[in-house]
Amino acid sequence: MISYKPFYETLFRRNFTEYQLIHHHDVSANTLHRIKKGEAITTKTIDTLCDILNCEVQDIILHI
């Protein structure tokens, strides 16, 4: 099972909001909805989030 808990912790540490991701970095609201629901996102999306947040994959997802 994949957990996105690290994603929200990273957002908080980096002082980012979902609003900023959507309106300043063109991350789709649907992507954030999928993350909230624990649904699958693509590795391309994970790569994009890592670039935006200047972090590593483990800062976005956790395999449980």
Largest sheet: 2 strands, antiparallel
Radius of gyration: 11 Å
Proportion of residues in helical segments: 55-70%
SS field, number of helical segments:
4
Global shape: globular
Quaternary state of this entry equals single chain
Report the structural category: mainly alpha
- Give the mean pLDDT: 96
* E-strand count: 2
Strand content: 5-15%
The largest beta-sheet arranges its strands as 1-2
Which parts are unreliable, with pLDDT below 50 for 5 consecutive residues or more? none
The topology string of helices and strands comes to: EHHHHE
Head-to-tail CA distance between termini: 5 Å
Domain HTH cro/C1-type: 26-60
Organism: Blautia caccae
InterPro entries: Cro/C1-type_HTH (IPR001387), Lambda_DNA-bd_dom_sf (IPR010982)
Pfam families: HTH_26
In short:
The chain is mainly α. Helices cover 56% and strands 6% of the residues. The protein has a two-stranded antiparallel sheet with strand order 1-2.
Could you please describe the fold and organization of this structure?
The protein is mainly alpha-helical and 64 residues long. Helix content is 56%, strand content 6%. The protein has a two-stranded antiparallel sheet with strand order 1-2. The longest helix is centred in the C-terminal third of the chain and has 11 residues, at 43-53. InterPro entries: Cro/C1-type_HTH (IPR001387), Lambda_DNA-bd_dom_sf (IPR010982). Pfam families: HTH_26 (PF13443). Residues 26-60 form the HTH cro/C1-type domain.
